[in-house]
């Protein structure tokens, strides 16, 4: 491990996390609010009622403020794959670059072209063309989410590729396998659903503030009707896709699954921990021995996790310890390798590549063909090459192969618990607004306002789980984060980290102040 | 359709697309150029408002083209993405920073309670317009002058030694900023900056119907047009007389491993070897000059289309001579054989094929951009436009 600059890796990860988390403050609102606005404008065009135009323009104004900072924080993410993760960019660029390019061609142009019509076209184009533009902005935003999430899903579950020793990288062999991998489909649907729920809470919360202030009450209630219906549909979809995503994680990223459930020791009939506080998280010693974690408090539902994961209350689920030390899976009858064994095989895969490249350089055709043949042998690829990434670790560093259990566990549970709260809030709000009793329920209006920060926390928690739960991998089993980084001084990355931290924080403050001022001006206020 | 093409044909096709995106990007820099002239062309609040709103309806095209240019480069030539972005770190980071501050500047500039004040957002627009264009010009010029880096994919296997596992390494601590000290690079950077300003003036002249602004156009075109011509001629002169980075084809050897050597007058040779490219270049340069001087000496307000079209042709031709005719498009002066060529840095045949199908969408994208552009630009911007409640920056 001495050839890795761990300080550089930490700062590079920190910078990526910082910029990604900032970006993700603004993106989900864009994803969902675009559709809410499109629905409102559709009602306006269909009914011809001017008050719906006023409502549409109010939410569109907030959309524009949020959209701008979403773009500002987004550009750095695309280029950061190259600037800070140059090894990664080469090792998987043949696959990962494609969705990013498609995102640009297919989605960004759609968004950027029609957003100009959406904002400046009210008096320049027909109602129909304007409405179409608003819908196209919403579709464009969600299409861009599709492609970046396909790229992210591929990192979590690499499929549809083969390793080429000549170029020393993974190359795409099946585009459709990448696009339609279950991980990609689930990730896309779950993520956009989370954006819809966030946007619905945003609209409901701000409208609740208007009701509390007794301002624009008709507009506020109409907004609440649209947002709660949109929110209920989205929440159900969110929970359904979340359930599917968890099952998918159990299948392709069992360590992440064990970490998010804080399951140290594998067993059958695993209960579901509905709420729990870790007294001592399960940790790994330098020697790779795992210390048991324990809960200070927990509420669990017997057999439920086994049932939810494999639709069988008796199903076996491996724990962190089993995954590290190797285990026999009674459910599948499979013997799963220990991490020590995977490390050995990973080193063999890396060494084979080294020998191949050296033979190539020396012009030794015989050895080149001998080593090259292994990469064409599906059995060797399956038994050895698939553990390529483990080869960057040593036996004495097994702790580095286990993600943070508290972060994974709490972020997952927080997200799940809050998503239940959002659904309940939408239903209750809808009932009372339809009965025209909402203004009297002041406590409920306060709850709606305070749910706005909660939905942002839930949304961030989802990405914390997705990205920290898969550590140490940047590409599951193939490339660890520490081997993906660019060769830079850690001080260089520290400077850019703080540059982004200060810039984004400043812009964020500006955004919040502008947004609050615009909200206070009211739904019928001028621009 | 694309499956039957050879790998080299696909690499060439994608280099053409990259060149096209790069050339469209420089044309769209009229937004950046205009941003540096808000106070030169606009003397009252209303005049400046008209200028900002004219540019503000187009800034996202430039931004999106830059992002797509990056994405397309990543997908088609990932070794460039890896080597250049990871190596010339500071140049790219400063460019990105200049675009980050642009993205909020339009929307937040005149909003009440905007925390930083209108002036700060206008400074952001200026930074974007000046730093963004100059540094992108400098970065693109290194396609001809080279940079000091090495690439060794064997590093990936360096798990037992103490050496780095990163395949590319930049020499020197400036991480790309050293390129700005080279006169040829700097001359292209400044040429792009002044060209962007010329295009910005021509665009605003075309889009705004306000006598006070239109009257200032001629003087500003002279002030910015002359340095543009000087720096562009300096760059072109240095380019055509300099040594270039030639790929040496070797029979029986995979093009991945072909070597690179210095060749006197390489880029002049490239023009002569590809007369079509030379023609595009000359027609492009003439069109830019026509647009510039035609507006200075004539009364036409459509110079943007002549100069813009000329910009696209000129930049397109420059990209083509950087990558075609056995030339290393991203050369290394530290280790010639680490230089990137369209053959050794590209994606696989499969990926380039898949992406080529995606590229068929580009004409549709262009069509709807034209439709939306015309819908928004069908009436020139006037002071009366801001009387109502409509959205404005």
The total beta strand count of chain A reads 10
Mass-distribution shape of chain A: globular
- Total of DSSP H or I helical runs spanning 4+ residues of chain B: 15
Oligomer: heterodimer
Strand order of the largest sheet of chain B: 1-2
Count of DSSP E strands of chain B? 4
Percent in strands of chain B: under 5%
Outline type of chain B: globular
The average pLDDT value of chain B, as a whole number, equals 94
Fraction in helix of chain B: 55-70%
Structural class of chain A: mainly alpha
Residue runs with pLDDT of under 50 for 5 or more positions of chain B: none
User: What is the ordering of alpha helices and beta strands of chain A?
Assistant: HHHHHEEHHHHEEEEHHEEHHHHHEEH
Question: Could you walk me through the main structural features you see in this protein, from its secondary elements to its overall organization?
Answer:
- Chain A has 527 residues and is mainly alpha-helical.
- Chain A has a domain at 14-156 and 491-514.
- Chain A has 17 helices and ten strands.
- A two-stranded antiparallel sheet of chain A has the order 1-2. Chain A has a two-stranded antiparallel sheet with strand order 3-6. Chain A has a two-stranded antiparallel sheet with strand order 4-5.
- Chain B is built from 15 helices and four strands.
- The N and C termini of chain B lie far apart (46 Å).
- Chain B has 393 residues and is mainly α.
- Chains A and B meet through helix 2, helix 3, helix 4, strand 2 and helix 12 of A and helix 5, helix 6, helix 7, strand 2 and helix 14 of B.
Question: What keyword list fits this structure?
Answer:
heterodimer, A: 527 residues, mainly alpha, two-stranded antiparallel ribbon, two-stranded antiparallel sheet, 69% helix, B: 393 residues, 15 helices
Topology:
The complex is a heterodimer of chains A (527) and B (393).
Chain A: H1 6-47, H2 50-83, H3 86-91, H4 93-120, H5 127-156, E1 161-164, E2 169-172, H6 175-179, H7 182-212, H8 217-252, H9 254-260, E3 272-280, E4 283-284, E5 290-291, E6 294-301, H10 304-310, H11 320-325, E7 327-329, E8 334-336, H12 339-362, H13 365-376, H14 378-383, H15 405-434, H16 442-468, E9 473-475, E10 479-480, H17 490-521
Antiparallel strand pairs in A: 1-2, 3-6, 4-5, 7-8, 9-10
Helix pairs in contact in A: 1-2, 1-5, 1-7, 1-16, 1-17, 2-17, 4-5, 5-7, 7-8, 7-16, 8-9, 8-15, 9-15, 12-13, 15-16
Chain B: H1 7-28, H2 30-35, H3 38-41, H4 45-56, H5 59-76, H6 78-87, H7 89-108, H8 118-145, E1 149-151, E2 168-170, H9 183-207, H10 211-241, E3 244-248, E4 259-263, H11 266-273, H12 275-297, H13 303-323, H14 349-359, H15 362-377
Antiparallel strand pairs in B: 1-2, 3-4
């Amino acid at each position: 491990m001495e050839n890795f600059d761990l300080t550089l890796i930490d700062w590079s990860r920190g910078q990526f996390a910082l910029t990604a988390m900032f970006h993700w403050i603004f993106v989900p609102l864009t994803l969902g609010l675009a559709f809410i606005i499109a629905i409102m404008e559709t009602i306006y065009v269909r009914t011809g009622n001017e008050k719906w135009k006023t409502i549409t323009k109010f939410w569109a104004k907030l959309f524009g403020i949020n959209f701008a900072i979403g773009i500002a924080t987004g550009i750095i993410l695309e280029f950061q794959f190259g600037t800070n993760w140059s090894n990664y960019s080469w090792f998987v660029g043949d696959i990962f670059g494609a969705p990013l390019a498609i995102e640009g061609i297919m989605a960004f142009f759609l968004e950027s072209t029609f957003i100009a019509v959406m904002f400046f076209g009210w008096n320049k184009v027909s109602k129909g063309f304007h409405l179409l533009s608003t819908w196209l902005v919403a579709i464009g935003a969600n299409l861009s989410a599709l492609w970046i999430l396909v790229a992210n899903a591929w990192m979590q579950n690499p499929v549809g590729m083969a390793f080429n020793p000549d170029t020393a990288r993974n190359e795409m062999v099946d585009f459709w396998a990448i696009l339609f991998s279950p991980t990609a489909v689930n990730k896309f649907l779950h993520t956009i659903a989370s954006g819809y729920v966030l946007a619905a809470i945003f609209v409901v919360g701000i409208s609740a503030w208007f009701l509390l202030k007794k301002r624009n009450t008709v507009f506020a209630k109409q907004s609440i009707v649209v947002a709660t219906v949109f929110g209920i549909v989205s929440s159900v979809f969110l929970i359904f896709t979340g359930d599917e995503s968890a099952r998918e994680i159990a299948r392709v990223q069992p360590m992440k699954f064990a970490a998010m459930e804080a399951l140290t020791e594998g067993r059958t009939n695993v209960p579901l921990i509905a709420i729990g506080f870790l007294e001592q998280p399960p940790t790994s010693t330098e020697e790779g021995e795992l210390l048991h974690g324990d809960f200070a408090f927990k509420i669990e539902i017997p057999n439920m996790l086994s049932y939810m994961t494999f639709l069988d209350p008796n199903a076996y689920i491996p724990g962190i310890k089993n995954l590290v030390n190797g285990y026999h899976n009674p459910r599948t009858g499979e013997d799963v390798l220990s991490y020590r064994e995977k490390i050995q095989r990973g080193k063999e895969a890396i060494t084979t590549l080294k020998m191949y490249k050296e033979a190539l350089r020396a012009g030794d055709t015989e050895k080149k063909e001998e080593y090259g043949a292994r990469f064409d042998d599906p059995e060797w690829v399956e038994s050895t090459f698939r553990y390529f990434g483990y080869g960057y670790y040593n036996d004495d560093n097994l702790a580095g192969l286990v993600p943070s259990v508290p972060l994974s566990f709490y972020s997952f549970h927080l997200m799940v618990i809050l998503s239940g709260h959002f659904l309940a809030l939408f239903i209750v709000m809808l009932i009372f607004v339809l009965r025209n009793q909402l203004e009297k329920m002041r406590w409920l209006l306060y709850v709606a306002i305070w749910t706005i920060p909660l939905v942002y926390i839930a949304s961030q928690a989802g990405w914390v789980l997705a990205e920290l739960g898969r550590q140490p991998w940047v590409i599951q089993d193939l490339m660890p984060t520490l081997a993906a980084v660019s060769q830079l001084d850690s001080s260089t990355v520290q400077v850019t980290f703080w540059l982004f931290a200060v810039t984004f924080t400043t812009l964020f403050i500006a955004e919040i102040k502008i947004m609050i001022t615009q909200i206070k001006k009211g739904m019928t206020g001028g621009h | 359709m694309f499956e039957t093409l050879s790998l080299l044909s696909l690499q060439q096709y994608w280099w053409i697309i990259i060149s096209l995106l790069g050339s469209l990007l420089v044309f769209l820099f009229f937004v950046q150029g205009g941003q540096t002239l808000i106070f030169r062309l606009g003397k009252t609040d209303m005049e400046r408002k008209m200028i900002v709103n004219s540019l503000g309806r187009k800034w996202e095209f430039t931004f999106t083209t830059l992002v797509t240019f990056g994405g397309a480069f990543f997908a088609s030539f990932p070794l460039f993405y890896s080597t250049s972005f990871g190596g010339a770190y500071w140049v790219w980071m400063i460019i990105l920073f200049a675009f980050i501050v642009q993205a909020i500047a339009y929307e937040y500039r005149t909003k009440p309670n905007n925390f930083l004040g209108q002036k700060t957002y206008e400074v952001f627009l200026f930074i974007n317009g000046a730093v963004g264009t100059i540094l992108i010009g400098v970065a693109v010029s290194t396609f001809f002058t080279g940079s000091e880096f090495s690439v060794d994919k064997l590093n990936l296997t360096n798990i037992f030694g103490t050496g780095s596992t990163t395949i590319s390494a930049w020499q020197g601590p400036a991480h790309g900023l050293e390129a700005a000290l080279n006169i040829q690079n700097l001359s292209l950077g400044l040429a792009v900056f002044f060209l962007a300003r010329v295009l910005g003036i021509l665009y605003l002249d075309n889009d705004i119907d306000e006598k006070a602004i239109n009257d200032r156009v001629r003087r500003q075109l002279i002030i910015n047009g002359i340095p543009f011509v000087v720096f562009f001629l300096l760059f072109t002169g240095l380019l055509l007389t300099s040594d270039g980075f030639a790929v040496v084809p070797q029979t029986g050897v995979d093009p991945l491993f072909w070597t690179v050597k210095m060749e006197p007058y390489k880029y002049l040779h490239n023009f002569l070897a590809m007369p079509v490219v030379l023609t595009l270049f000359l027609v492009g340069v003439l069109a830019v000059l026509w647009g510039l001087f035609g507006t200075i000496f004539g009364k036409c307000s459509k110079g943007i289309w002549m100069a813009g079209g000329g910009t696209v042709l000129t930049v397109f031709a420059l990209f083509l001579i950087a990558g075609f005719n056995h030339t290393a498009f991203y050369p290394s002066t530290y280790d010639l054989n680490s230089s990137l060529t369209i053959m050794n840095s590209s994606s696989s045949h499969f990926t380039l094929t898949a992406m080529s199908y995606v590229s068929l969408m580009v004409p549709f994208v262009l069509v709807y951009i034209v439709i939306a552009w015309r819908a928004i630009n069908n009436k020139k911007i006037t002071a009366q436009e801001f009387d109502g409640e409509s959205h404005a920056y």
